[in-house]
Task: structure prediction
Amino acid sequence: MKTTPFSTSYVTSATASDRPRSDQNQQVGATQRDRAARERALVLGGGGSAGNAWLIGVVAGLCDAALDVTEPDLIIGTSAGATAAAQIAHASPLRLFADILSASPPQQRTGAVGSHGGRAATGTVADQMRRTSAIIAASADPADMRRRLGAAALELDAESDGSRQAQWRATVAARLPSQQWPQRTVLITAVDADSGDPVVFDRHSGVELVDAVAASTSSGAPYRIADRRYIDGGYRRSSENADLAAGYGRVLVLSPLGGRSRAPLAWGMQLAAQVEELRAGGSRVETVVPDSNSRDVFGSNMMDLSTRPPAARAGYDQGRALAVQLTEFWR
Result:
C-alpha cells in the first residue's frame, strides 16, 4: 500500500561529505539520542504558510477519523513542519485546526514572507526564489550549496538593521502553544549559515524550542542563536529530511511540497531517494502529499497567509479520506 507515487528518476544515497560529523556542534548529535523506542516516526515537511496549515489539517482530519498520529516515538519537523511539530506536540490538532479557520484575515503585506509567513530580509518572494535557484544551480554538491546559501544569507544579514531577529522570534513564539520542549523526541532541522553544516536540534541541545523553530523557519537573513547563525532547515537535505527517521519501523511522511526538490536529481536530495533509503534499511514508509484540491487552494504562493484556512480545510478532508488506509500501517 502506497498513498502517492514518486518519480523513479533519482539516486539512492547521499555522499559521505553530506552527512553531519560527530565533532560538530552538540546539536548535530541529536539523532543519536533517545532511540530506545524506534517503532513509529512522523515526518512533517516544509511548505510555507499554506503548507503548515495543510499539515495541521491532515493531522486533524486523521484524528477526527479516530487515527491519532501525534504521539509517535519520533517527530521530525522542517521549516513550516518544525512549527507544526512544536504545535501538535503541545496542543490538540483539532484545536489548532479550529484556530486556523477562526483567525482574522491577514493584513496586506508589501514585503516578502518567510517559510511560515514571516518577512524575508529583502525583496519579494519571487526575488528570493530566483536568488536561491541561481545559487543551487552554481553549486557543485549539497555541501557546496549549503555553504553558498549560508554565505548569501550572511550578506543579507550584514545589510539589515538587526530588528528582524527579535521580530521573528516574537512571531514564532506567538504561534507555539508552549515554548517548552516536549518530553517525546522531536527533531528540528536547520543549517549553520557560517559553516554550511546541517544541524539537528532537540531538547538536549541547550537551545530553546522557540529558537530552534525560528532557525528552521528562517528565510532570507539568518537567525542567530548564541554565536552561530542558521538558515532554513529545508536546505539540510530536503523539505522533509525523512532520512533522520532511519531505523524506525514505520515512517509516515507528510510533504506539503509533494516531495519535490530544487536540487539536481543526481544529488539524491528529493524525498523519493530518502524513502528508498528508508525502505532499504527495513522501514515501512507511507507518504502523503497534497491532492489536486489542496494544490488548487495553495495557489502560486504558498507563503500567502490568506491560503491558510482553505489549505487547512483541504488537508482536513484529505486526512479523513486517508484514515482507513493509514490505520493498519500506523497501528
In short: The two ends are 15 Å apart (CA to CA). Residues 308-330 form the longest helix (23 residues). The mean pLDDT is 86. The beta strands are 40-44, 74-77, 185-192, 198-201, 223-225, 228-231, 250-254, 284-288.
